[in-house]
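Researcher: Structure prediction, please.
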Amino acid sequence: MSTNPAPWRNPTAPERRRILDTTRSIAMVGASPNPARASNFVATYLLSSTRYDLYFVNPFADEILGRPVYKTLADLPVVPDLVEVFRKPSDLPAVLDETLALGDGVRTFWLQFGLWDADLARRAEAAGKEVVMDLCVKVEHARFHGGLHLAGFDTGVISSRRRTA
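Model: Predicted structure follows.
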C-alpha cells in the first residue's frame, strides 16, 4: 500500500467561477507599485473591471495605484475572502501562516502563475481553505466574465467591425 498522497488538483473551472463569484474582497500579498510587474497589472484590471474590494500587502510600499498598502495581512482593516499571493516559493509557508492566523473569514488561498506547492495546498485545505494554484485571478475573472476570448483579452479597442455613426 502506497503512503504517497494522491496528486493535488486545482478546483474545476465551475468551482473556480463559484469562488470568484462569491468573493467580495481580495488581499494581494506581494502587490508591487511597479507598473511593469504582473501584480500591478492584475491590480489595475481588478480595480477597473471588477466589484472586488482590493487590499494591497507589501512591507516595502506605502501606496499602490493611489490606495494604501498594508505591511502584513494582520494590518488589514478587514478579513478578506481571498488571499492572492505574488511572492517567491520560499515565502509561501509564511504567507499561509499569516492567512491561517486571520481565521475562518478567509475562504480562498490563491497562488499566482508559477506557484505550486501540493503540501502547502493540503495544509491550507486541512484548515478549511479552498486553494487555487498556478492560475491568475485576472485571467480567470476575464475568462468567466467575457473579457477573454480565443485571440486574447477583449479590450474593445481594436475591432474588425465597422463603426456606425
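Model: Residues 149-154 have pLDDT under 50 and may be disordered.
Researcher: Thanks, that helps.
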